[in-house]
């Protein structure tokens, strides 16, 4: 990503001023929300290393592979968060992550729990549900570009194959 790219986490900030800082140094996530945003960004960039590093050891999977070229991340919507500030030791973040997978528009809705240990925030676990629907070629693109799906993300996903 270049210096003028907006951060994938949807903060509206430049990547270099937002999640890039946290991806380079886990201790820069001062709140659970910052860690949540950086983890979403890590998924979009296939940063397995950071995802494992920022995952609490007691719930971290043995293997983690997010390098699936068939997935195209579309956006993150933060719905609410509770606690998780610099003075807290736990917090929750409720979000919806949108992505395309094999021409299907998918949504992952989760209430994630975070804990802070030794001044570092970690993802603990979450309660989630997901939905998938086939997007029609002539429907508006789910990424929000205003273009038809066939002229936007469907074309991009085919170019990646």
Q: Can you describe this structure in just a few lines?
A:
The protein is of the alpha+beta class.
Order of helices and strands: HHHEEEEH
Largest sheet: 4 strands, antiparallel
The main sheet orders its strands as: 1-2-3-4
Which of globular, elongated, flat, extended, rod-shaped describes the shape? globular
Strand coverage percent? 25-35%
Give the averaged pLDDT, no decimals: 90
Question: How many helical elements?
Answer: 4
Secondary-structure topology with pairs:
Elements: H1 19-24, H2 32-44, H3 48-53, E1 71-83, E2 90-101, E3 104-117, E4 120-134, H4 153-160
Antiparallel strand pairs: 1-2, 2-3, 3-4
Observed structural traits:
161 residues, alpha+beta, four-stranded antiparallel sheet, 4 helices, 4 strands, globular
Describe the structure.
The chain has 161 residues and is α+β, with helices and mostly antiparallel strands. The protein has four helices and four strands; from the N terminus they run αααββββα. It has a four-stranded antiparallel β-sheet with strand order 1-2-3-4, with helices on one face. Strand 1 and strand 2 form a beta hairpin. It is globular and about 50 Å long.
């Amino acid at each position: 990503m270049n210096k003028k790219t907006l951060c994938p986490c949807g903060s509206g900030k430049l990547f270099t001023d937002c999640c890039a800082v946290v991806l380079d140094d886990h201790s820069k996530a001062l709140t659970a929300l910052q860690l949540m945003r950086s983890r979403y960004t890590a998924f979009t960039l296939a940063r397995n290393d950071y995802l494992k590093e920022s995952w609490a050891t007691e719930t971290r999977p043995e293997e983690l592979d997010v390098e699936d070229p068939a997935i195209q991340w579309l956006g993150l919507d933060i719905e609410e968060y509770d606690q998780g500030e610099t003075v807290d030791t736990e917090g929750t973040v409720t979000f919806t992550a949108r992505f395309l997978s094999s021409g299907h528009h998918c949504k992952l809705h989760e209430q994630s729990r975070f804990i802070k240990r030794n001044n570092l925030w970690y993802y603990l676990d979450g309660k989630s549900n997901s939905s998938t629907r086939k997007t029609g070629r002539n429907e508006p693109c789910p990424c929000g570009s205003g273009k038809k799906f066939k002229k936007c993300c469907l074309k991009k996903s085919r170019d990646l194959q």
